């Protein structure tokens, strides 16, 4: 509880942030819309630690003994599974939400390290197809820009049922960002506040989805993998249904996952933390004898190689990054601090992606702002960052005696607190106790 | 070219259709259909395809260029996301017919169920019978012509699609209103009716469209969302 001076006590319930939001709501009559992901503190990978090798385990020599990082996605049904050099992919983000330069930079960075990038709501741009060696095409409820020609150009298809920032909600792209090109791609009037649907228009449940997936396979002649992406909520059941519906790959996006524009109340109050979702997903896959056969990609708050390694130790085959990728491109960079302050924010705090005024030229359609982002330089920064994530994860894996990131396992982890132990299903550090598990 | 789904799988038929030449019009007949799903999806050739029997889900999905006639009823998502060409079902169509379709023409001789033309993005749809509830929901562009009646919440959250109904409308959805039938609309409707083989008088239809009041978020519209 902050005290400005002795005797002045800030309420824990009605903090200054809460008071500000009540007064903002009272003045405008509209809920707060913003980008980014959940900002509240939730149990996360920081609450887990690796048990490095010592007497009872044998470590691998750093820099000398190989620790593999490659991953193959879509081995269940697709004729052409995706082979990536690293298990860190770029999550779906739309042209519209992001500038064309930002999309190009994501493709360039992903190419340099041998991983995939993903389209978003609004369809595939020729630029991103040209600059992305491996491109996943999102199939979303809105079907904005949905084109069978682009579908056939994709290396994989991701059927999006939801995302971690807003499970159960559709996207929005406010009028400031609906330029002529965005309007043309989405077949909408210029300048309107665009509302994306939250449900697919032509199927309503898992049995229908199974037929929908067969349709997509028929259209693409069974060549490319089909992912199903869900926001993390009832993950155990959703993953089981996704397997039954015929997914090659399942993407689980935790509540820390980002968005370009959603109600703040949605971002902060719907969904479960990424760390809590992974064991549910893995348990569902294991019970169906599909773990490692249907690959699991996890996203939502991945920031470091430690996060990558922990997600994989819990059972993920790969991870996806969105917010961190934008930060690597230059989002929230201190060099733009003065300009962030002019629009009521500051470097390190900026989340008004929906306004289209991004000083870094990333979450904008303003041509002058967008021109500030050099796609080649930004792509190089992203590639550097992806290399660091991979090398950090390898460092931790070698310390645990693993010759491949996929050999990491829950037994390599302990939790720092009871909540994390219960959610991740690993023992509380210094004990053999996993809350909720019988026999412990 | 002729297939029978009693002896060929849907996969074999679709692969054969996808392998048709793109520079010539081929006639194809598929018999023995018994509610099979995903027939003739992803066409990208100017073929003339006749489907004899009732088809299941997503028949003619994402069609480009092909002309597909269904001698029977059609299941859910008929001609979903069609880009061009023509799909003609001689019977009834289940829900979400021509969902999100960007172009081409869908003709339904019978009735179409709920959400006909949901999120339509440029397709033209002519239903000689009636349509179910929430038809043209979030319709962005193109035309929905209903020679019979329309169910509840027609055109809910409509963008710029044009709706023409000859019979009664159970209710209009949010931001959908009746609009004046000007000469250009009569001309547009006449052409669609003619193309669909209807002899209805366009002057007997009422036009509906977007009031454009929900295009931007406004406090005053809170009750409509």
CATH superfamily of chain B: Glutamate synthase, alpha subunit, C-terminal domain
Structural class of chain A: alpha/beta
Helical content band of chain B = under 10%
The number of domains of chain B is 1
* String of helices and strands of chain B: EHEEEEEEEEEHE
Main sheet of chain A? Answer: 8 strands, parallel
Tell me how many strands of chain A there are.
16
So what's the oligomer here? Answer: heterodimer
Give the N-to-C terminal Cα separation of chain B: 51 Å
Give me the CATH architecture of chain B, please: 3 Solenoid
* Head-to-tail CA distance between termini of chain A: 37 Å
| DSSP strand count of chain B | 11
User: Biggest interface: chains and residue counts?
Assistant: A-B, 33 and 42 residues
Give a nutshell description of this structure.
Chain A is α/β, with parallel strands linked by helices.
Write the layout of secondary structure elements.
The complex is a heterodimer of chains A (440) and B (225).
Chain A: H1 16-28, E1 33-36, E2 48-50, E3 71-73, E4 82-84, E5 88-90, H2 100-113, E6 117-118, H3 126-131, E7 135-139, H4 148-153, E8 156-160, E9 172-173, H5 180-186, E10 194-195, H6 206-219, E11 226-231, H7 235-245, E12 249-253, E13 259-263, H8 264-269, H9 274-287, E14 295-299, H10 305-313, E15 318-321, H11 323-329, H12 337-342, H13 367-370, H14 375-399, E16 413-415, H15 418-424
Parallel strand pairs in A: 5-15, 6-7, 7-8, 8-11, 11-12, 12-14, 14-15
Antiparallel strand pairs in A: 1-13, 2-16, 3-4, 9-10
Helix pairs in contact in A: 2-14, 6-7, 7-9, 9-15, 10-14, 11-14
Chain B: E1 2-4, H1 10-18, E2 27-34, E3 48-54, E4 67-71, E5 86-89, E6 105-108, E7 121-127, E8 141-146, E9 162-165, E10 176-179, H2 183-195, E11 206-210
Parallel strand pairs in B: 1-2, 2-3, 3-4, 4-5, 5-6, 6-7, 7-8, 8-9
Antiparallel strand pairs in B: 9-11, 10-11
